[in-house]
Design a protein that fits this description.
The structure is a single chain. By secondary structure, the chain is mainly alpha-helical. The chain has seven helices and three strands, in the order H-H-H-H-H-H-H-E-E-E. A three-stranded antiparallel sheet has the order 1-2-3, with no helix packed on it.
């Protein structure tokens, strides 16, 4: 659990509720809502892991050019990257994945425990063409990895 509520995810904040209140809220969810919540990054991610402008932006119009997630082991950099690619793949026809090597990109960013294939819900999961080093998203977009 984060040291303060400022850095707590919505899921962390939910855990602080009394057990009866948590149970009441969970029972109010439909099966579809509960399933969607499992893959909702805005629920699981901490504020510092959200894209600039997604939670609180420091620019008045929400624009940004560079975003660096420089953090230590276990902070969630791979998951942040996977969730960011999920978001971008909805709006852009090409989202490239660049790692130190193509093998690193494959092993960590795509197939890793916090990688794209692990965090995408079934209906949003891209088709993985390993021999062509690319992902093909359900909306027709592609992600090449190098």
């Amino acid at each position: 659990m984060p040291s303060s509520l400022v850095e707590a995810s919505l899921a962390d904040q939910f855990r602080l509720l009394q057990p009866e209140e948590r149970q009441r809220r969970l029972e109010a969810l439909s099966d579809e809502e509960a399933t969607r919540l499992l893959h909702d990054w805005s629920w699981w991610g901490r504020p510092s892991q959200m894209l600039p402008g997604q939670i609180n932006t420091r620019t008045p119009d929400g624009t940004w050019v560079t975003w660096l997630a420089m953090a230590g082991r276990g902070w969630g950099k791979t998951r942040v990257g996977a969730e960011t690619v999920r978001i971008w793949a909805r709006d852009f026809p090409l989202v490239s994945l660049v790692g130190p090597t193509a093998d690193d990109a494959r092993d960590i960013m795509i197939e890793g425990e916090s990688g794209i294939l692990a965090c995408c819900p079934k209906g949003e999961r891209p088709y993985y063409r390993s021999s062509k080093r690319r992902l093909e998203w359900p909306n027709g977009g592609r992600s090449l990895f190098v």
